[in-house]
Amino acid sequence: MPNGCGLLLAALPLLLKGAGLLGPEAYLLALGGYLAGFIAGGLLFGFPVLGKRPWEAELSFDDNGDARQVIDTALRGIRSLVMHNHDQCLSNILQQRVLGLCDRLEGLLIQWEGSKGTLSLEEEFHARHLASAYLPQALKTYLSIPKDFASERLLENGRTAHDTLVLALDDLSAKVGQLADDLAGQDAQAFLAHSRFLDEKFGTRKQALR
Predict the structure, then answer these.
(1) From CA 128, how far away is CA 4, in angstroms rounded?
(2) Contact between 196 and 123 (Cβ < 8 Å)
(3) What residues pair up with 160 in beta bridges, in sequence order?
(4) Taking a C-beta distance cutoff of 8 angstroms, is the pair 90, 82 a contact?
(5) CA within 13 Å, CB half, 145
(6) Model pTM?
(7) Could you tell me which residues are beta bridge partners of residue 154?
(8) For 72-119, what is each residue's pLDDT tens digit?
(9) Where does the chain cross the membrane (predicted)?
């Protein structure tokens, strides 16, 4: 609204100049009119706020509380941003990679809930921050780059920002796979230990299973 008020007042001197009623001074009057209109509009309707870019708020997550709840909340926010894809800044490849990573993280959550194993403090830290910090920050910094620059200009690493993000997402996905494998390995060991207990207790082992 302030910008519209400024443009309206700026147009008046230019119209008068076009009608031959003002000379070159019309341009200065137009500038003054814009400033006066902008200030008046701001006082009446509120000045525009130079706030965060659209994705900043969507990719900002509270990291306090239960790790699994933090991850779940972050995944919902990230998926929403990717699906809306503001200004089509994310290519189809990036959308697929991010959503695939979210799926793997969700799978890790489900596995974690049903697992007899536990993640170490370091692993839990990585799982929590991968969803609430590492991935969101990677997206934030990427989305701050103009789309054409991100997809065409080579960086110091010899790759575009687009290709660099693809590789980063692959690395994060591999880390999630490691965490999932760790839980699966603990469950397998628990299963094997219980199987040995049953065999020692009841002698039910079959030769065919050796």
Answers:
(1) 46
(2) no
(3) 154
(4) yes
(5) 19
(6) 0.67
(7) 160
(8) 999 999 999 999 998 899 999 999 999 999 999 999 989 988 887 788
(9) 28-50
